[in-house]
Design goal:
A hairpin with a 5-residue loop joins strand 1 and strand 2. The protein is 26% helix and 25% strand. The protein has 1 helix and 5 strands, in the order E-E-E-H-E-E. It has a 5-stranded antiparallel β-sheet, with helices on one face. The chain is elongated and about 40 Å long. The chain is an alpha+beta fold. The protein has a domain of 48 residues.
Length: 80
Amino acid sequence: MTQYQYVTVLTPQEEGGYTATVPALQGCISEGDTKEEALANIRDAIEGYLFVAKKHNLYPFAGIQKLEEVEVVSGVLQYA
């Protein structure tokens, strides 16, 4: 199975919690009450996004680097 790296942007919300977006995957967004929850939710959203893209022969993979592991750095998720 091929693995890819996606940068996720976490944005704190005034009412609390975080919104997570993936700039490379237009419309891929999630949220959570904590950073950890937002990152877990965006992992699910990325998997769903890629599943649907593959099912419909859409490939949003251009320019994405291969990665062997998941790494969280400074609130940014690099997702494998």
